[in-house]
Amino acid sequence: MNSEYIVRLYKANEGNIVEQLVKNFSSENEARNFINNYNGNYIGQLWVIVEGNNLLDHIKRNEK
Question: For residue range 15-44, what is the model confidence (pLDDT) as tens digits?
Fold first, then answer.
C-alpha cells in the first residue's frame, strides 16, 4: 500500500493565515527532508505533514 505524505506551508499574511505551498511525497522521510532543507525566508511559518486524513506533525519555524 502506497501512502502519500502531503506537506503544507502556512504563513501569516496581514493577520490571515494563508496557504503558501503544497507538495506531495511518497515517504515521511522525504517530506521531513524537504522541510529541513527548505530555504525560504518566511517568518512565523508553519509546516504541516499529513498522511491521508491524519495530521502527522506540525513544525513551527521562525526564520529571518
Answer: 787 778 899 999 999 999 999 888 776 667
Q: How far apart are CA 52 and CA 41, in angstroms?
A: 28
Question: Starting from the edge strand earliest in sequence, which strands make up the sheet with 54-61, in order?
Answer: 16-25, 5-13, 45-51, 54-61
The whole-number pLDDT of residue 45 equals 81
Closest CA to 46 of 2, 38, 54: 38
DSSP secondary structure code for residue 63 in this structure: -
Residue 16 zone, left/alpha/beta (φ > 0; ψ -120 to 50; rest): beta
Beta partners for residue 58, in sequence order: 48
Residue whose C-alpha cell reads 526564520 in the numeric block: 63
Q: Strand 5-13 and strand 45-51: pairing?
A: antiparallel
